[in-house]
Design goal:
Length: 199
């Protein structure tokens, strides 16, 4: 388990605009503070990620969404209550006052409360949303061990939080609710049957 002092150092690095690699239940993720536009741009460059593919974010708890100006319907709240913390990403609408609105011009963001305790602790300590994208170049296989990260992730701008491997397997299931219908946008650990039974 990662010590509190290591979490504090990682948070300081995030607040300076740096990138932090942290474990999730599936893969190693790369995070920046999602409200810092320069940090998000830096992460996009590291990943060589197209501008039309926004990053998902993690938060520590469902109660954090209100402060981020993120709305939830009754169906979305039900799904979150059932599967958070866990491998479910919900694509949720941003209100006009959301600090994320300028970075997500489509007005929606994929949000998750992760099952991994280190990821949650990092989000809780920074007091906001952190990007959650696999720590690899776009199109390359995701990595589960720190030693396997590419050279682009070995810069002084990139802080590695802990050295435990991620669990591997399938990523989170990405879901969007439209007109009361639950639609799976990316298949992952949760099946459509599991989601249907909970919605």
């Amino acid at each position: 388990m990662v010590a509190d002092a290591e979490i504090a150092e990682a948070v300081a690095h995030l607040r300076r605009g740096g990138v932090v690699i942290y474990p999730t239940g599936s893969f190693l993720a790369a995070g920046v503070l999602a409200t810092l536009s320069e940090a998000v741009a830096r992460l996009r460059s590291l990943k060589a990620r197209p501008a039309n593919k926004p990053f998902g974010v993690i938060v520590a708890a469902i109660d954090d969404l209100a402060e981020l100006g993120i709305d939830m319907s009754a169906i979305e709240r039900g799904l979150a209550a059932r599967f958070w913390p866990g491998p479910l990403s919900l694509v949720l609408p941003l209100t006009p006052i959301s600090p994320l609105a300028g970075l997500y011009p489509g007005g929606r963001v994929a949000v998750r409360v992760p099952g991994h305790p280190v990821a949650r602790a990092l989000a809780a300590a920074c007091g906001g949303a952190i990007t959650a994208t696999s720590a690899n170049r776009s199109g390359a296989p995701p990595v589960t061990a720190v030693r396997d990260r590419g050279s682009e992730w070995r810069s002084p701008d990139v802080w590695v939080l802990g050295d435990e491997p991620a669990g591997g397997g399938l990523p989170s299931t990405v879901v969007q609710v439209r007109n009361g219908v639950v639609r799976v946008l990316r298949r992952g650990r949760l099946s459509a049957a599991e989601l249907g039974a909970a919605s």
